[in-house]
Structure formats: structure tokens, C-alpha cells
Design goal:
The chain is of the alpha+beta class and 348 residues long. It folds into five domains: 45 residues; 35 residues, no CATH class; 77 residues, Elongation Factor Tu (Ef-tu), domain 3 (Beta Barrel); 74 residues, GMP Synthetase, Chain A, domain 3, CATH 3.30.300; 81 residues. 34% of the residues lie in helices and 22% in strands. The protein has eight helices and 18 strands. The protein has a six-stranded antiparallel beta barrel with strand order 1-6-4-3-7-8. Helix 1 crosses helix 2, helix 3 runs parallel beside helix 4 and helix 5 crosses helix 6. The protein starts with 8 loop residues before the first helix and ends with a strand.
Length: 348
């Protein structure tokens, strides 16, 4: 069976003109053009209908319909949360909804009132603007939008940082999740707690999660360790906010009898040393090789991941073949719970 190929307007017009060859040219031309436009529109509508029949090809409006059928909502942007340390006169109250402003220009709201102690007092806050821009690292400062008597005007992000802020799920990532759930429902009738199910649930819990390592029976028969992978975050590791989001989602959806844990992957560093030959050791080549190796490492996200010498050489050779690889000298394998993370390439 051949695939349907939509004829172009020119092809339709030529066919119709051929069918009307017996008519005078003064009539055949206009009639063929009018008829071809009508037929072209019909073929266009059929082509559009065909695309809507699958979540892999449908338009956004229809994708919402497909997602609703299988309960796969698009992941909305999330706001950064965490704790900041406040100092001031002991016994002073910092009220809920007090606004703080970060060095990034964004506002943060105090989530619950606290009474200051003798030292630095932790205060839970949430960014008022969803997205990754609200994430702050440990040690960064925020200031009170309106001064509060007895409280220092500058507050410091605690050691865990303000994390969990992420952009809305991309259309294509959402499309893949919808198609994944569709396939599972058709083939298996639903999710029951297999390893692939925990990976899907982890990706559904937070837009930063791009995958997960799943270790069944790691802590005994019937136990499961779920280690979310976040390729867009530092060292591919989930932040505390992401771990909390995954745990909260699993608490609602995982089988009632499941004994699961959520933890961060164990970083396995990948160190590559390269000697580029004279004439090829340019910054452009170095940057391109670093990017190619980074893409290779990011593609390894399974419990049995292996980085072979052939794969590493292929990534480098995609930029230039004029090099000598000094390290590593053997294939790299992950242990249980390990996740490959690329170090900056060392140049000999």
C-alpha cells in the first residue's frame, strides 16, 4: 500500500486541463483553474484531518483533546521555593506575604510568619514569577521591599538555594508524553508500577525532570529507588524542590503497596583529555568538541549506561579527526544509581 501524497495545485490544474482538452482553450483554462482550486482545498482539508488522527502530528488544539483523554496535562511553569536566613532583634515577627526582592529583580513572598531567634532564622519563601529565572544559589542576597523594624534589610539564601523554578513544558516534550501514555494504554491498559512507569511519573511530576534511574528491589524485595535526572540543571541533578515534587506525585499515583524512595543520582564524572594536532587546536574546535561530548553524555540516561571509546571518538571526530585521545583509555560503565556527568575537557 503506497502512502498518500497530496497533489499540488499545479498538478491538479494540469490534470483537469487535460480532462477538458476537448473544450476551447478560452473555456478550458478558467474552468481548470477554478476546479483545481476547489479540489486543492478539499485535499488540504483531508491532509489536515489525517494529521489530527495522531497526537504525534496533530495541532496544539487537538493535542489538548488527546491529552485530556489520557490524563496527561501539560506541565505548567513552576516557581522557585526554598529558605532564606533572616537576622534582627530576637522576638521580632516577620509576617507572611512580606515581599523580598532578589538580585535578579524578581520578588519573593514569605510563605509563613516566623519569630526571629537569637541567630539567623530560616524563612520559607516562593518566587512570585514562575520559571527558572527565580532560582538562586546559596549565599545570594535578597532585600526587604518595605523595611520592617527590628529586621535586617538583607536576607541570605540558605545552603540549599532557591530551586524548582522551571519553564512551561515544551510542546514537543508534552507531545512525547501524550504519545507514550497512549501507547501504554493501548498495549497494557494502564500503568501498574513497572520501571518505565516510574520514569514516566517522574517526568510528569516536574518540568525539570528529563528522565529517571529506577532501581527495583535495591533495598529489599518490593522496594524501588527512583532517581530523577534533570539534564538542564547543574550536574544533571534534581534540586530539593524537584525531589519533593516527584515524591509528592508518587505518593498520589504509585501503587498503594509499593515501597518506593526518591533520591538524587550518584554522579559519575567523565574526564576526557584530548591533544589536538597543530593547526587544528582552535577555540572553535574546542567548543564544538565539548558540545559534542556533552550531547553524548546527556544521551546516556539508563541504569546500564556505557560510554564506549568508539562513541567518544565518534563525537570528537564529528568536529575533527586530527587529534589524539589521551583519556579515557577504556570503556566507562555506571554502577547502580550512577549518572554520567561530563567534566570540562582537558586539552593537552
Amino acid at each position: 500500500m503506497t502512502n498518500y501524497v497530496r497533489p499540488s495545485y499545479s498538478e491538479l490544474k494540469a490534470r483537469i486541463q487535460n480532462d477538458l482538452a476537448a473544450l476551447p482553450a478560452v473555456l478550458a483554462g478558467p474552468l481548470a483553474a477554478a476546479w483545481a482550486r476547489a479540489c486543492h482545498g478539499v485535499h488540504g482539508n483531508l491532509d489536515w484531518i489525517d494529521r489530527q488522527c495522531s497526537p504525534l502530528t496533530c495541532e496544539l488544539e487537538r493535542l489538548y483533546d488527546w491529552a485530556a483523554l489520557y490524563g496527561v496535562d501539560r506541565l505548567a511553569a513552576t516557581a522557585a521555593t526554598g529558605h532564606v536566613l533572616v537576622t534582627g532583634t530576637a522576638g521580632t515577627d516577620l509576617l507572611a506575604d512580606t515581599l523580598l526582592r532578589g538580585q535578579n529583580g524578581l520578588d519573593y513572598k514569605v510563605l509563613a510568619a516566623v519569630e526571629l531567634g537569637a541567630g539567623a532564622t530560616p524563612v520559607a519563601v516562593r518566587c512570585q514569577t514562575a520559571g527558572s529565572a527565580g532560582n538562586l544559589i546559596a549565599g545570594q542576597s535578597l532585600t526587604l521591599v518595605d523595611p520592617v523594624p527590628g529586621i535586617a534589610g538583607s536576607l541570605t539564601v540558605d545552603s540549599n538555594g532557591l530551586t524548582g523554578g522551571a519553564a512551561e513544558e515544551t510542546l514537543e516534550d508534552w507531545r512525547i508524553r501524550v504519545a507514550d501514555e497512549w501507547q501504554v494504554m493501548v498495549i497494557r491498559g494502564g500503568r501498574s508500577g513497572k520501571s518505565a512507569d516510574y520514569r514516566f511519573w517522574a517526568k510528569t511530576a516536574h518540568p525539570s525532570v528529563t528522565g529517571a534511574l529506577v532501581q527495583p528491589h535495591a533495598l529489599g524485595i518490593g522496594t524501588v529507588i527512583v532517581r530523577p535526572i534533570c539534564n538542564g540543571l547543574l550536574d544533571r541533578l534534581p534540586t530539593p524542590a524537584v525531589l519533593d515534587a516527584v515524591a509528592a506525585y508518587l505518593a498520589d499515583i504509585a501503587p498503594a503497596t509499593a515501597d518506593w524512595r526518591v533520591a538524587a543520582p550518584i554522579v559519575k564524572r567523565v574526564s576526557v583529555t584530548i591533544d589536538l594536532l597543530p593547526g587544528y587546536d582552535s577555540q572553535a574546535n574546542r567548543d564544538a568538541i565539548q558540545a559534542a561530548l556533552a550531547a553524548l553524555v546527556l544521551s546516556e540516561s539508563s541504569e546500564a549506561a556505557v560510554l564506549t571509546m568508539a562513541e567518544i571518538d565518534a563525537a570528537i571526530a564529528s568536529v575533527t579527526q586530527q587529534y589524539t585521545r589521551l583519556a579515557p583509555l577504556a570503556d566507562l560503565h555506571v554502577a547502580a544509581g550512577d549518572l554520567f556527568v561530563l567534566n570540562p575537557v582537558t586539552w593537552a
